[in-house]
Amino acid sequence: MNKEILQLIYLVGSISFMIGLKMLSKPDTARKGNLIAAFGMTIAILGTIFLYEGIKISNYGWIFGGLIIGTLLGTLSAKKVKMTKMPEMVSLFNGMGGACAMLISAVEFTHLTHNHEIGALPKGHLLIIMLGLIIGSISFVGSLVAWGKLSGHLGDKTLKLQQVVNIGLLLLILGITCYTIMVGPPETITYFYAIWGLSVLYGILFVMPIGGADMPVVISLLNSFTGVAAAMGGFLYDNKVMLVGGILVGSAGTLLTLVMCKAMNRSLTNVLIGNFGGGGGNGESTTSLSGGHVREINVGDTAILLKYANNVIIVPGYGLAVAQAQHVCHELEEILEKEGVGVKYAIHPVAGRMPGHMNVLLAESNVSYDKLIEMEHINPEFSTTDVVLVVGANDVVNPAAKTDPSSPIYGMPILDVENAKNIIVMKRSMKAGYAGIENELFFQPKTSMLFGDAKGTLTKLVSEIKAL
Amino acid sequence: MLEFINSNIQIIYLVILMIFVGVELIEKVPSVLHTPLMSGANAIHGVVIIGAIIIMGQAESTFAIILGFISVILGTLNVVGGFVVTDRMLEMFKKKK
């Protein structure tokens, strides 16, 4: 009886995952979708604890202990993390899931070697355990490296012949795995731990050379890896809800990764082996530009320009996030609106460090959702705009993406800010953006540079406009 | 090979169907939702915790108890942290009255 009820619970859980994911892909229903998926997860977990055959009551203490510790730590860290640190947090949680899959494989392997003679281990079982181990380990370690890079603990490092080493290592892992499963040598246990170690090493080498700016894509990819690793658990226990959840995330995550790459107009291979963040080696860069003339503007003049404009478009970038300037940015918007100036935000799909980064940030300071306009819709509007205010964005407004085939960002769709009547770029210095390239926009006659920290400058701007 | 496919035919059907469902569900997602969606998906693959609970619940050796306990904690972190972070991101999308 218990078994039948549990199957029903797993069915409801699986359906809630599908509905949850579906609702997560629309702004209006997204939050509800997340709750529905969380509900499905909760009943699946409780059902397993109380109804799964073979769960020993004497182990309840351990189970609930683990659940409580995990819940406390998870809730605390998720609630406390700053909005700008979200991507790191997601990466870290993803790594925990990978580690969990990895440990499950390790325990199941010892069960297997206990119950069967070495050399006569069931091949299908062994294959699934090995795959769970390999994918889980790569996802775990890879996510930790991605987390380290995003939080600035780790830099980009490329070994000589990195790609050759990586491919060789992967082939070695797969080779040993196939050999162990097919032949079943007496050293199976040693080989198992060798595969584990090599997978961990591969996880490091896989993520290490990829530029920090591409981490969102990598996290999304590792996310789908963990999904597949979870599905391996589904095979192992013939558990449908693990299978459905894992495969769903595996396939949706892969597609999401490709969509993210497409938003930057780059292929996944290019992201993974392109060394985008490394700079150099990409033909001659347009250094001749640095000799050009840059026009500076002060806060007072900017205030006048903004107050007497008919319409203003604000282009936020990572600089806004770093300076935590989203609240004062909203304040500026409100003051300008009060003066009768139409204000909109132009959101590039990859502005900031993650797609959607700017939306989340601005929504935090209560900027209304319909003021955030996506690239395709706002681009035609720039030509009729009086002032564009670029706050801490760089590569996403670099015209080189359209005009200079030798540029590493060539082909990436950008915001056509250069069509506006006036462009004011707020930046801390003339330093290059994440792609490490010059921006000819800064040297155009219509462009003025307003140097300083985004938060400080915006605050001054607000009080200046009030005083006018 | 043929035997393996035959004895697991239901699961194979399920996997293939889920691959298509996953692709279908995500296809038309606006770029604003990429990060929350990734985070939500991240929480869903935390379903791996069920495997951890099964191991923990059946554990007899100290080795299995220790690893099982750690994996329950890790799995819970993935699930709870994942859903809470996603909710926090989406909380910001509330429409203003």
Secondary structure elements and their pairing?
The complex is a heterodimer of chains A (468) and B (97).
Chain A (H helix, E strand, L loop, with lengths): L1 H23 L5 H22 L8 H21 L5 H30 L7 H28 L11 H22 L4 H20 L7 H22 L3 H24 L4 H6 L25 H9 L3 E6 L1 H5 L3 H13 L3 E6 L9 H8 L7 E3 H4 L8 E5 L8 H4 L18 E6 L19 E5 L2 H14 L1
Chain B lengths: L1 H6 L1 H18 L7 H11 L4 H10 L3 H30 L6
Helix pairs in contact in B: 3-5, 4-5
Shape of chain B: flat
Strand content of chain B: under 5%
**Number of helical segments with 4 or more residues of chain A:** 17
Which strands sit side by side, in order, in the main sheet of chain A? 3-2-1-4-5-6
Tell me the count of domains of chain A.
3
Low-confidence stretches of chain B: none
Arithmetic mean pLDDT of chain A: 87
- The portion of residues forming beta strands of chain A comes to 5-15%
Chain pair with largest interface: A-B, 112 and 80 residues
Counting DSSP E segments of at least 2 residues, the number of strands of chain B comes to 0
**CA-CA gap between termini of chain A:** 77 Å
What is the global morphology of chain A? elongated
Biggest β-sheet of chain A, characterized? 6 strands, parallel
Give a count of the beta strands of chain A, DSSP E runs of length 2 or more. Answer: 6
The quaternary structure here is heterodimer
Separate helix tally of chain B? 5
Largest sheet of chain B: none
SSE succession of chain B: HHHHH
Short structural summary:
Chain A has 468 residues and is of the alpha/beta class. Chain A is built from 17 helices and six strands.
Walkthrough of the structure:
The complex is a heterodimer of chains A (468) and B (97). Chain A has 468 residues and is an alpha/beta fold. Chain A is built from 17 helices and 6 strands. Chain A has helices at 2-24, 30-51, 60-80, 86-115, 123-150, 162-183, 188-207, 215-236, 240-263, 268-273, 299-307, 318-322, 326-338, 357-364, 375-378, 400-403, 454-467, and strands at residues 311-316, 342-347, 372-374, 387-391, 422-427, 447-451. Chain A has a 6-stranded parallel sheet with strand order 3-2-1-4-5-6. In chain A, helix 11 (299-307) packs across helix 17 (454-467). Chain A starts with a helix and ends with a helix. Chain B is mostly helical and 97 residues long. In chain B, helix 3 runs antiparallel to helix 5 and helix 4 runs antiparallel to helix 5 (62-91). The longest helix of chain B has 30 residues, at 62-91. In chain B, 57% of the residues are buried. At the A-B interface, helix 1, helix 2, helix 3, helix 4 and helix 8 of A face helix 2, helix 3, helix 4 and helix 5 of B.
